[in-house]
Amino acid sequence: MSPEGTGEVLDAGARLRRLLAILGHLAEVGEAPLAELAARFGVNEQALVADLELAACCGLPPYTPDQLLELVIDEDRVSAYGLEPLRRPPRLTPDEGFAVAAAARALLAVPGADPDGPLGRALGKLEAALGEDRVQVELEVPPHLGVLRRAAAECELVEIDYLGANRGEETTRVVEPYSVAAREGHFYLDAFCHLAGDWRRFQVERIAAVRPTGSTGTPRTAPPELAGPRAFAGGGGTRVARIAVSASEAPALERFATGPAEEAGDGKVVVAVAVADERWLGRLLLRLGDAAEVLDPPELAGARSKAATAALARYR
């Protein structure tokens, strides 16, 4: 969701990462022209001001004025005070250090990662500080990962047998592999699918067989929705459903949300969720319980009842 009136679309995680980078820069320079900051971080000035005004409401308990971040926007300049802690390198506890090292080891275990790159060098320094105990992380590699990576590198068409999300739904299709990457704990293949006539993201663990065709595909450019870090990426038929749900259940929708949750009162929030398959939405609503309600579009309001009817039919 965008800061109000800016027209910019970013999820909460992306906005937070950008804001932390901006605050880190302001901690170093103290003050900077608004236009210079906007150009440096690739954001329009209106969105930048909205984010900085939000940051100015943050601080430490009891959140009195002297405990809030002091960010002053005076016409075309931004001045920052009290950000000295951001200039000092963070000091990690041993537990925090091992957690960071484990995450870095998991990233380096992904096939194709550069062990001698910046991450590998940083990990070496961290492990040296932690002592002789080296963090070992084993990442399970699906059986067809290698052949899919080679096909993507050589623009070779392959035929795959794919197990769909619905039970017993297996299809055989010819695809043009574009890239294979690890996202949110799983490997995914991004490819142009000849059966669908469009781009698709396939979970590699669900690919039952891969058969090279010996044919070369047409060089293509993947759509923007496949470029983000999130695993979920809908196709051209993706719709956005606004779902009212209790605030305690909202985290279950975060990975599919198109923006931050909106307060709805009575302990509920409204989350805009990207939906590529009505059956998937129905199963999601069943997990969330009766308190979850599709506000719009109207054609998706019955997704839960359809999923429940299908589940009961399988039991019979």
Describe the overall structure.
The protein has four domains: 12-87, Winged helix-like DNA-binding domain superfamily/Winged helix DNA-binding domain (Arc Repressor Mutant, subunit A); 94-130, no CATH class; 145-226, Roll (SH3 type barrels), CATH 2.30.30.520; 239-315, Alpha-Beta Plaits. Helices cover 31% and strands 26% of the residues. The chain has helices at 12-29, 34-41, 45-55, 94-108, 118-130, 145-154, 278-288, 303-315; strands at 31-33, 70-74, 77-81, 156-163, 170-183, 186-193, 198-203, 207-216, 239-246, 262-265, 268-275, 293-296. It has a five-stranded antiparallel sheet. The chain has a four-stranded antiparallel sheet with strand order 10-11-9-12. Helix 4 (94-108) runs antiparallel to helix 5 and helix 7 packs across helix 8. The protein is globular and about 65 Å long.
Write the topology of this structure:
Blueprint: H1 12-29, E1 31-33, H2 34-41, H3 45-55, E2 70-74, E3 77-81, H4 94-108, H5 118-130, H6 145-154, E4 156-163, E5 170-183, E6 186-193, E7 198-203, E8 207-216, E9 239-246, E10 262-265, E11 268-275, H7 278-288, E12 293-296, H8 303-315
Antiparallel strand pairs: 1-3, 2-3, 4-5, 4-8, 5-6, 6-7, 9-11, 9-12, 10-11
Helix pairs in contact: 4-5, 7-8
CATH topology of the largest domain: SH3 type barrels
Rg, nearest Å: 24 Å
Portion of residues in beta strands equals 25-35%
CATH architecture label name of the largest domain: Roll
Largest sheet: 5 strands, antiparallel
Helix tally? 8
- Low-confidence stretches are none
Q: How are the strands of the largest sheet arranged?
A: 7-6-5-4-8
Q: Helical proportion?
A: 25-40%
**What structural category characterises the helix and strand content?**
alpha+beta
Whole-number average pLDDT? 80
- What's the shape? globular
Element-level helix/strand string? HEHHEEHHHEEEEEEEEHEH
Number of structural units classed as domains: 4
- DSSP strand tally: 12
Ends apart, CA distance between termini: 43 Å
What is the CATH class designation of the largest domain? Mainly Beta
